[in-house]
Sequence to fold (57 residues):
Amino acid sequence: MSKQYNLRMSRQDRQLFEAWNRTYPPQAWERQRNQQVACVMGRGNEFVGPVNLKTCG
Fold:
C-alpha cells in the first residue's frame, strides 16, 4: 500500500515486511491469484510476482 498510494512507512516496518517476504515468499497459488486479480483490476501486486495482462481474456 505504501508504494501504490505513496504512503509513508517507517524504516522498522519496511524491514519487518522485507524479512517476512524473505521468510515466506509467495506460493504458487498466490501468484496464480495475483494473475487473476490483475485480469480484473488491470494491474497485479508487484510484490507477489509479475503478471501478463496479454493472457487475460
User: Anything to note?
Assistant: The longest helix spans residues 28-41. The chain has one domain: 11-55. The chain has a mean pLDDT of 94.
